[in-house]
Specification:
Distance between the termini of chain A: 41 Å
Shape of chain B: globular
Number of strands of chain A: 11
Low-confidence stretches of chain B: none
Strand content of chain A: over 45%
Number of strands of chain B: 11
Number of helices of chain B: 0
Number of helices of chain A: 0
Oligomer: heterodimer
Order of helices and strands of chain B: EEEEEEEEEEE
Distance between the termini of chain B: 31 Å
Order of helices and strands of chain A: EEEEEEEEEEE
Largest sheet of chain A: 6 strands, mixed
Structural class of chain B: mainly beta
Helix content of chain A: under 10%
Amino acid sequence: AQSVTQLGSHVSVSEGALVLLRCNYSSSVPPYLFWYVQYPNQGLQLLLKYTSAATLVKGINGFEAEFKKSETSFHLTKPSAHMSDAAEYFCAVSDEDGGYSTLTFGKGTMLLVSP
Amino acid sequence: DSGVTQTPKHLITATGQRVTLRCSPRSGDLSVYWYQQSLDQGLQFLIQYYNGEERAKGNILERFSAQQFPDLHSELNLSSLELGDSALYFCASSATFSTGGHGYTFGSGTRLTVV
């Protein structure tokens, strides 16, 4: 069974600082991995996805994530935080099992950005 | 606008009652997924329909049921409601029955409050 662990329910950074949100996955087959962002009172929006084409994946709003198979990790980073990045971030894993698959989400990490 | 439409946005009802949540998938998407988001459980997968047929079941209670109609919209029925059913209910859609590395497109959710 697939699972996702996000380390830290809350992460606080200053504006302009590096953002690092951690995600570790467990999957019995090579996975697809995703990061979603949820702004207050909104649905989840896809930030980026890993589909085995490249281990470093670039997404929207300056975010990127690196797939490391040896560490079973898919951490999300952004070089310089902006106030508008304050939101909740979810890592998700999908494995193709029997031709169908669903997304399993981590519990989320709330990113707080201070001026 | 993600293209996935959920109605109503907010719903307040009493314990023991029954409610119906509605979802229209993005144009061209055949799969509909329902998720429940609560503070203690995070995002929990409930059920998936593909082109009118149930494809996958997650942590869905027996009091809950869903269906997908010929026009591909879906309804989630929640009955004998309890206080603990208060949550945000998301619908998501995808083109096929698997994520295929594409992920889902989420609606903005229905916030259910049971009093």
